[in-house]
Every structure is written in structure tokens, then in C-alpha cells.
Amino acid sequence: MKADAIIKWFMPKEERFHELLGRGAVNLGDAAKEFAALAHSEDFAVRKAHTQKLRETIGGHAQVLLEALRVRFEQGNEDKESLITEIHQQLGDSVEKLLLIKVILDSDPQDNKREQG
What we know:
Number of strands: 0
Radius of gyration: 20 Å
Strand content: under 5%
């Protein structure tokens, strides 16, 4: 069998697959645009609005953990590096996790000056 025949053999035969693949590609493109707008926004209200347009990316248990970590950060009693390490250890990959880490990193002007300089 030639390579193209093997690939053709593995491809789904139903037309519905191609329709679903097309819709999935459109959804992925829309989500990428929303994420780009979210990532480039400096305004928290704009970030929140874009985040609400995205589908849920984490489950209920992870959301509870995220909120607890956010409260601990807002209290200001903890080392930021240790808190970020704990966030990485306790939470999987999600937009919400990245937003919290960005808020933590952006909260210290000295860190921003070191990154730019």
C-alpha cells in the first residue's frame, strides 16, 4: 500500500465528519481571537468580559482551588514565587490559572521594571 492509500484508509468515510471538523475549525478560530484579545488586554474588566465569552475551561473543584489561591494572594501575606509554584502544582492548564498568575506578576512594579530592563 502506498502512503496516500494508507492515509485514505484511516480517514472517516462519513460526510458528517468533515462537517463537524469544519465547525470545530471555525470554533477554534473564534476562540483563538477571543484569547488573543484577552491576552493583550491590560484592563481587568475587559479580561473578565472576554473570559466570560469562553466556555468553561476548568471544573468546579479547580474553581474552588483557584478562588482560594486568589484570596490568599489578595491578603498579601505570602511570597509570590511560592504562591505561583503552588498554583502550578495544584491547577492544570487553564485560562483562569494564567490570568491569576499574570495578576500576581503584574502586581509588583519592581518585577515589571526588571523584565523590561
